[in-house]
Design brief:
This protein is of the alpha+beta class and about 140 residues long. Helix content is about 25%, strand content about 35%. The chain contains three helices and seven strands; from the N terminus they run βααββββββα. The longest helix has 23 residues, at about 110-130.
Length: about 140
């Protein structure tokens, strides 16, 4: 199996970062076009990326201001069963974000493209939390 791992720092507290990675309003600022759900372990999230990308995920881990993870249950076949999540660690005026997208069946084309896309999306997350920047959904991979 292949995994995507990215560690980075955000100049904000875990209390400021957590809503951006765990709530529909937060996810919609940097990842999804729109989403719905309640951030609680066992709950289902709707993740909408366009008419052909209306996905579902189950929250497998939700620890306030510390951890959040989703397991994709209805998505592109390569994504089904994979887990996307964060662990947050407070620093001196910063948060270290440990991002993972684990459980890929192989390091195929979808995996390789996703490695790039995650880096781009995580940069947008960082800019949103640190500076309040909002990038329109259809421009996110162009910034």
């Amino acid at each position: 199996m292949a995994d995507i791992l990215h560690d980075f720092w955000i100049k904000a507290s875990p209390e400021e970062v957590f809503p951006a990675i765990s709530t529909p309003a937060g996810l919609d600022t940097w990842w999804t076009s729109r989403s719905a759900g309640r951030p609680s372990t066992g709950e289902e999230y709707e993740l909408w990326f366009g008419p052909d990308y209306d996905w579902r995920a189950i929250i497998t881990r939700c620890v306030q201001d510390a951890e959040f993870e989703l397991e994709l249950v209805s998505a592109d076949p390569a994504w089904v069963g994979t887990r996307v999540g964060f662990r947050l660690e407070a620093g001196d005026g910063t948060t270290r974000a440990y991002f993972h997208h684990t459980g890929w069946p192989e390091a195929g084309e979808n995996y390789r493209v996703s490695c790039y896309c995650w880096a781009m999306y995580l940069r947008i997350l960082k800019r949103y939390v640190e500076h309040g920047e909002r990038v329109p959904y259809d421009k996110r991979l162009d910034v």
